[in-house]
Amino acid sequence: MTATTCRALVMLLVAAALVLPARGRAQQQGTEVQGVGVLPVQGAVTMLAVDGGNVVVQVGPDGVLLVDPRTEATAERVMAAVRTLSNGPVHTIVDTHADPEHTGGNQAVVKMRGTGGAQDVRVMAHSNVLLRMQAAGQVSGFQLNAAITVPINGTYDEPRRDFYLNGESIVLYHEPAAHTDGDTVVHFRRSDVLAVGDVFVPDRYPEIELDAGGSIQGEIDALNHILELTVPARFQEGGTYVIPGHGRLCDEADVVEVRNMATIVRDRVQALVGQ
After folding, report:
1. pLDDT digits over 24-56, tens only?
2. Residue pLDDT, tens place only, 89-138
3. Structure pTM?
4. Could you tell me the sign of the dihedral formed by the alpha carbons of 184, 185, 189, 194, in that order?
5. Three-class SS of residue 235?
């Protein structure tokens, strides 16, 4: 088999794997606020869809938790949507990885957090996120004015970090070498919802950032871990909901499809390379 033929076969395999059926699960009714889709998921968790990406919101008596507040350009609209859910202050921000399209809204959201001191906001991420931001020349702290900087002050190095907020246990799981080497999956245990960032995105091939420590095997391992955390309802519809970094609200069976696709492509490409 020539190198040209091998490359062509690889492209065909990838193209075929990208044709995933849209199963149409989890079609709850939502609203729209200033161009931001607001979709109640279940429990205390809501999904905000803005400019092609998703923000996860948990609200309750302790305040507001945000996962991946998107960009500075979208921060004002995101917070307008949040204010339809809660008038409480932003208590915690979780960054699932270091990409600017997910972390760029941190500083703007902190400035608009609501009552209380902005320096009290807890910004959480795996320590590799902080290292990646520093290496890329991004600010590792959020400058509010000449005197106040809010750092990423909740980094963790262990495989998991848990805490309790708004009446439920929240667990952060580090997924090493998946989309990047700093990915976090956020499990809202009482609400039975996972926020997974770009570790899982439906209807497309996984985006693996090799230069940021990602790998195909780490990606498959992370998808398998998500499947360990999810429990489907009757006929595989509903149950534990999975909020991806981009795209529609999903459940366990959607993750199974992407995991199977990624595994098949990995195995077939490895076989072709071996030939």
Report:
1. 444 567 899 999 999 999 999 999 999 999 999
2. 999 999 999 888 888 888 888 888 765 554 578 889 998 988 887 777 66
3. 0.85
4. positive
5. helix
What is the C-alpha radius of gyration for the chain, rounded to an integer number of angstroms? Answer: 19
**Average per-residue pLDDT in the chain?**
85
In three-state form (DSSP H/G/I as H, E/B as E, the rest C), the secondary structure along 67-92 is ECCCCCCCHHHHHHHHCCCCCCCEEE
**Token pair of 229, please?**
């955390």
Using an 8 Å Cβ cutoff, are 261 and 234 in contact? no
Take residue 60 and report the two structure tokens written for it.
Answer: 């309750």
Between CA 108 and CA 131 the distance in angstroms is 21
| CA triple 32-243-226, angle to 5 deg | 175
Residue from 147, 149, 93 nearest 122 by CA: 93
The token duo for 232 is 């489907």
- In the DSSP assignment, the letter for residue 192 is T
| Cα 141 to Cα 16, 67, 110, 149, distances in angstroms | 43, 17, 11, 6
Residue 144 burial (10 A CB sphere; 0-12, 13-18, 19+): middle
What value does the mean pLDDT take over residues 161-179? 96
Are 144 and 151 in contact by the 8 Å Cβ rule? The answer is: no
149: which DSSP letter?
A: E
